[in-house]
Specification:
By secondary structure, this protein is α/β, with parallel strands linked by helices. Helices cover 50% and strands 11% of the residues. The strands form two sheets. It has a seven-stranded mixed β-sheet, with helices on both faces. It has a two-stranded antiparallel ribbon with strand order 3-4. It starts with a helix and ends with a strand. The mean pLDDT is 89.
Length: 410
């Protein structure tokens, strides 16, 4: 008998197949393997900086936000600005189940239990709270997702074992730590550097040699190596500018940017990458949605957030005209064909209110829309070059090639 969780998985398969294959005439083995992997939990934490997003979007109490959800960290952080409505969407049923669990936890738990669940994410108490408090509040597909698993290991047990070590990205980070130890490098030592200068010196002395090694160059020259980062074949080629032999150098530059763009006591992305955890002693070095000072606002605003499993184009198609103020695309356009990007921007333009903003990241530097949009569409959207480049320089994640802010000029 097919469960509701199975239905979500089947929908993930269909949505991901369409997203990865797009309108390609042929489907490569690389595409098929990536689509298969991406049906699982990929991002226990989202890797776009919400602090940068909020500065770009300038949300207010009348704002309607449409965003790709991923792990839900940013959609929740946007609630701190008290917009009127946030519509979150994701292709992956695992991400949808994660966001629904977070929504329920914000509604039902006090801050200490909420932080234990999603900040520390490694406690038997989390399982108790799930069973005694959250379970009855969840819909059936979400219950089935967290209760199911492999070989008797229920997925909810990840919050007992250390949630941020799971998911495709969590496992990849763990593998990178293991690989670094083979070179005699403990990546956690970045966390004790006192300033950005020390962070850069430590990286150059201890980490750069890993990226410069022949074995790393060989491994990273294959698109398969980055599937666990959630990078499909098309995006892989954009990341290395079509030259796989240069991928190790590109990754070294991005890793150094992550390690040095901000002081380590102010960059929770670097803590997760190099320490595999959050800085529990420093509230200001946490995602906004996990900070105590924001928790009451989250509780008050949580009903403004909705989440659904769908393609963002179809969500926009169902929205009334002139009804959306902000669209956050993450790096989704790196996956898309030219026709799909054009169709997406038709719907973004139809639904955009005056002054609407769209933000997204790209693996490479160039914006994908400049050569795709027809003149009538392009004339309605202006990239804010100064602010885009400034905000990219502040992005604490640092794993993307560029940040793009477009403003509606109707």
């Amino acid at each position: 008998m097919q469960t509701l969780s199975d239905v979500g998985l089947e929908k993930s398969k269909e949505l991901l197949k369409n997203a990865v294959y797009g309108k390609k005439d042929t489907q490569t083995i690389k595409d098929k393997i990536f689509a298969l992997l991406f049906q699982k939990l990929v991002y226990p934490q989202i890797w776009e900086d919400p602090q940068v997003d909020l500065e770009a979007l300038e949300l207010n109490e009348k704002s309607h936000v449409v965003t790709i959800a991923s792990g839900g960290c940013n959609a929740l952080s946007y609630l701190i600005a008290s917009p009127e409505k946030i519509t979150a969407v994701d292709l992956n049923h695992a991400h949808v189940a994660l966001v629904k669990l977070k929504i329920s936890a914000i509604k039902e738990l006090d801050y200490g239990d909420f932080y234990r669940f999603f900040g520390e994410a490694k406690s038997e108490k989390n399982i108790d709270n799930y069973k005694k408090i959250l379970y009855s509040k969840l819909d059936e597909p979400t219950k089935e997702y967290w209760d199911s698993g492999i070989l008797g290991f229920q997925r909810i047990q990840m919050f007992k074992k250390g949630f941020y070590s799971f998911g495709l990205l969590g496992k990849l980070i763990g593998f990178l730590h293991f690989g670094a130890r083979l070179y005699g490098v403990s990546l956690e030592k970045l966390l004790i550097q006192k300033n950005k200068t020390e962070q850069a010196s430590w990286f150059d002395l201890h980490v750069a040699k890993i990226f410069d090694s022949n074995i790393f160059k060989k491994i990273s020259s294959s698109p398969f190596a980055l599937f666990y980062l959630g990078i499909p074949p098309k995006q892989y080629m954009a990341l290395c500018d079509g030259q796989p032999e240069n991928m190790a150098q590109v990754l070294k530059e991005r890793a150094k940017h992550l390690a040095t763009v901000e002081r380590i006591d102010r960059n929770y992305f670097a803590w997760q990458a190099f320490g595999r955890k959050y800085d529990h002693s420093n509230q200001e070095n946490l995602p906004q949605y996990l900070q105590l000072s924001n928790f009451n606002v989250l509780k008050n605003n949580i009903s403004k957030l909705s989440i659904e499993q769908n393609n963002i184009v179809d969500v926009l198609r169902s929205a009334p005209g002139n009804s959306v103020d902000s669209v956050i695309l993450l790096d989704a356009q790196d996956w898309m064909s030219d026709d799909e990007i054009y169709t997406l921007w038709i719907e973004i333009t139809r639904t955009a209110r005056q002054g609407a903003k769209v933000i997204f990241r790209t693996a490479g530097v160039a914006s994908p829309i400049d050569s795709i949009l027809t003149a009538d569409l392009a004339n309605k959207w202006q990239r804010n070059n100064v602010k885009s480049d400034y905000l990219w320089s502040k992005d604490r994640s640092g794993i993307y090639g560029a940040f793009h802010l477009y403003e509606f000029q109707n």
